[in-house]
Amino acid sequence: MGSGLFLTRKKRLAGLAVGCMVLLLVLYVMAVRTSIGQLAGNAAIAGGESLTRPELEAGAQVLRWVTLSTLTVATVVITGVGLVRGGWPLAIGVLGAIGGANVATQVLKRLVFDRPALMGVDDPFGSHNSFPSGHATIVMSVVLALFMVLPESANVPLAIGGWAFVSLIGATMVEQGWHRPSDAIAGYLVATAAASVSSIFALWAARRWVSAEQEAYLFHDPSHKLQRWGLPGAVVLTVLGAAAFWIAATNRAWLDLTPQETETSFWLAVVFLAGSAAVLITAFLAALGGVDLAAPGILPGIIRPRKR
User: Fold this and answer.
1) Residue-wise DSSP of 116-133
2) Do the beta carbons of residue 87 and residue 305 sit within 8 Å?
3) Does the first or last residue of the chain, that is N or C, have fewer Cβ atoms within 10 Å of its Cβ?
4) Alpha helix segments (H runs only) across the chain
C-alpha cells in the first residue's frame, strides 16, 4: 500500500513541478516578449501609482519586512523545525525548497531571461528585466516550506494566512512600481516547482530511513475540504481575473490609456495575483494529498535505515 501511495504522490508532485515550469515559460512569452503583455504590466503599475500616499506608504512598510535577513532567519527556523520533526531528509528538503527557489529566480532573472523594448515608446518603469520577482519567490517559498514541516492539522489556517500574505506582497510590489504582475506570479511558480521537487526528495528519503511501522505516519486521509473546493474556486478566480485584466489593460495604446483604465487594470491585476497564489497553494496541498512529510514520532537519533 505504501509503495502505491508514494508513487501517486511522486507523480502528482512531479507533474506540478513540470506544469509550473511550462506555465513560467508561457507567462514569460506572453507578458515579456509581446508588446501587449508589456503594456498590460505597465498599465497595472500606473494604476497603482494613482492610490493615495498613505496607501503607498503602508505598502512600502510591508515590503520592508521581506529582506535577505528575514529570509535567512525564516530558513534557519523552518529547517530547525524540519530537523526536529522529520530528521535530516526533511531538513534538506526544506533547504531545497527555499534555497533552490531563490537561487533559481536570481539565475533566471539575471542570466536567462531578458526584456526587449517592444512598446514603441520609452518604458516609463525601466527596460531592465525583473522577471521573476525575488520578493514573491521569498514569501511563497517560505509559506510552502511551512506546509512541509508543520502537521496536516495546520494546513487550513496556514493556507488562508499564507495566501493572504503572498497576495498582499504581490499587490504591494505592483503598487510600489517594483514589479509587474507577471513578475510576482513567476516568482510564485518558481517557488512551487522547487517545493514540489524538494517534497519528492523528502518523501523518498523518509521512506528509505524509517521502519515499516513508522512509514504509516507518512500517509493520512485528508481531513479537510480545502483540496476539494479550494482549487476549483481558485482556478475560476484566476481565469476571470486574468481575462478581465488583459482586456482592460490592452484595449488602447500606452499613451491613450486614461487614469480610470490604469486604475482598473491595477485592481484586476490584484485579483489575478490573488487567484494565482490560491491556485498554486491549493495545488501543492492537493499534490501532497494527505502526506505528512515530518512523519510524527520520527526524530534524529532514532531513525535507522530500513533493511532491503
Assistant:
1) ---SSS--TT-SS---S-
2) no
3) C
4) 2-31, 35-48, 53-63, 68-86, 88-95, 101-107, 134-149, 155-176, 181-209, 212-215, 231-249, 259-288
Tell me how far CA of residue 211 lies from CA of 58, 92, 206, 298, in angstroms: 51, 20, 9, 10
Cell, residue 11: 507523480
pLDDT of 296 > 70? The answer is no
| 193's grid cell | 516547482
In contact, 142 and 99? CB cutoff 8 Å? no
Give me the torsion for CA of 207, 212, 216, 218, rounded to 10°. Answer: -10
What Å distances lie between residue 36 and 46, 207, 229, 251, 291, CA to CA?
Answer: 15, 48, 33, 9, 42
One-letter amino acid of 46: A
Task: Let me know how long the chain is.
Answer: 308
Whether 164 contacts 62, CB under 8 Å: no
Number of domains in the chain: 1
Give the tens place of pLDDT for each residue, 24-76. Answer: 999 999 889 988 888 888 888 888 877 766 666 766 777 888 888 888 999 99
pTM of the full predicted structure? 0.85
**Does the residue 304 lie in any domain?**
no
d(CA 239, CA 34): 20
Closest C-alpha among 48, 6, 9, 296 to residue 171 = 48
308 belongs to a structural domain: no
Q: Which of these, 124, 99, 103, 100, lies nearest to 112 by C-alpha position?
A: 103
Residue 205, number of CB atoms within 10 A of its CB = 19
> In this structure, are residues 187 and 98 in contact, taking their beta carbons and an 8 Å threshold?
no
* Structural domain includes residue 12: yes
- Is 299 contained in some domain? no
